[in-house]
Amino acid sequence: MENLKQVLEALLFVSEIPLSAKKLKEVVEDVEETCIEKMLEELMSEYENRCGGIIIQKAAGGYQFRTSERVSPWILKFKQGKPLALSPAAMETLAVVAYRQPVMKSEVEKVRGVDASAALKGLLEKKLIRIVGRKDVPGRPIMYGTTRRFLEVFTLNDLSELPTLQEIRELDEE
Amino acid sequence: MAYQIKLDVFEGPLDLLLYLIRKHEIDIYDIPISLITSQYMAYIEEMKSLNLDLAGEYLLIAATLLHIKSRMLIPAHEEEEAEEEDPRAELVKQLVEYRTFKEAALNLGAVKLLGRDVFARNMVDEACSGGSDRPIREIGIFDLVEAFRNVLAFAGEDIEMEVDLEKFSLSQRINEIMEELNQRKAVTFEELLGTKRNRKGIIYTFLALLELMKLRMARAFQADSYGPIRIFLAVEEEK
User: Fold this and answer.
1) How close is the nearest chain A Cα to the Cα of B62, in Å?
2) Which of A44, B25, B227, B233 has the largest count of CB atoms under 10 Å?
3) Is the pLDDT at B78 greater than 70, yes or no?
4) Cβ(B233)–Cβ(B185) below 8 Å
5) Do residues A118 and B128 lie in contact, with contact meaning Cβ atoms separated by under 8 Å?
6) Tally of structural domains, chain B
7) Which of B97, B106, B119 is nearest residue A66 as measured by Cβ atoms?
8) Looking at B109, B135, B152, which one is the last position of a domain?
């Protein structure tokens, strides 16, 4: 396929979510996944070298067109929206969910020492966390976990890219 | 009162304790409990005098501190001393854990966030793109109850006949609704009731919806007071 790169670029352009090489292969079919991956990497560095208003970013296991950080004030003005704002309470709650998932509300509250209902509700509404099930103990409490949207927003490919708690603790002990 | 002060510096009692520990350059594993207790109490007093809503959580930690202090004052029996744990151990464990997650949260927030620093194409709120231009507000249980009452008022009495009670299972109705939502993304309350216009059918649909809303799997929106109530999937299925 000689125009593979153009096709891939266009597919990324129209997609609303990050596209993985695997997903792209379903569309272009008779091309090796490694070849697609190589093309994507090439595209990525082309956009990077161009220093334009958009870049290609790897997130949630796929590739996605994003605006460059330098232009964000204008984007916000255009969209007339508020930037994604997460309070310290929301961030701490999200951190506990991310590292301890699947996790119950009571476990989050034990770590933070305060009620977690509002923070969890806010994170659910922002689709950063989701209900993953109920724990098989009396009362059947709800368990929470992070979403694919979480990976996308925090530019992670998977949860293993988070620094371990041990690493964070060592930073702290200094 | 002439003015009000909002002091929202601490994320909770543990945060306040960590602040005090840092401020006094105290080793977290060897907390001088008497000093910290008095400092903590002083803050609580100050918050009270500022007329702040003092959450119960602060008082819980205050009680814990006083309890630890009292236990440390009582001389332990010599034979018990060996096996008795440091009364501070539990609190220290909690503090260290909280500190770790606080750090982890800062770490998480340090990256370029989608929707704050960088943007992609899907920045519209998909839940509200229901077609109409009227502002749509999210409604609560009471609006749904109101709609339920209306429908029930129109529904006639059940025609008497032999009914297999198994026909109406709540979990089955929940599954049906979820399937419907998965396919169509949005349905109105009326549509969900559909042909099941007898009392039992309506009641089960209503109960199923309440359960789904409680589980936060579905959300209900309404454009104006007597307009149709639209039900959306709250959490999209992970792909």
Assistant:
1) 12
2) B233
3) no
4) yes
5) no
6) 2
7) B119
8) B109
Give yes or no: residues B145 and B218 share one domain: yes
- pLDDT tens digits for range B94-107: 999 999 999 999 98
In the chain, the amino acid numbered A119 is A
CA of residue A40 relative to chain centroid, distance = 19
Tokens 């297999």, residue located? B164
Q: Does residue B69 share a domain with residue B137?
A: no
User: Cβ distance A116 to A105 under 8 Å?
Assistant: yes
Q: DSSP code of B118? A: B
Within a domain: residue B238? no
- B1 three-state secondary structure: coil
| Residue B186: CATH number of its domain | 1.10.10.580
Q: What is the mean pLDDT of residues A42-65?
A: 92
Please give the Cα distance from B96 to B188 (Å, whole number): 49
Of residues A21 and B6, the one with the higher pLDDT is: A21
ipTM computed for the complex: 0.84
Q: Delineate the domains of chain A, giving CATH numbers in brackets.
A: 4-76 (1.10.10.10), 88-173 (1.10.10.10)
Strands A129-134 and A103-104: unpaired
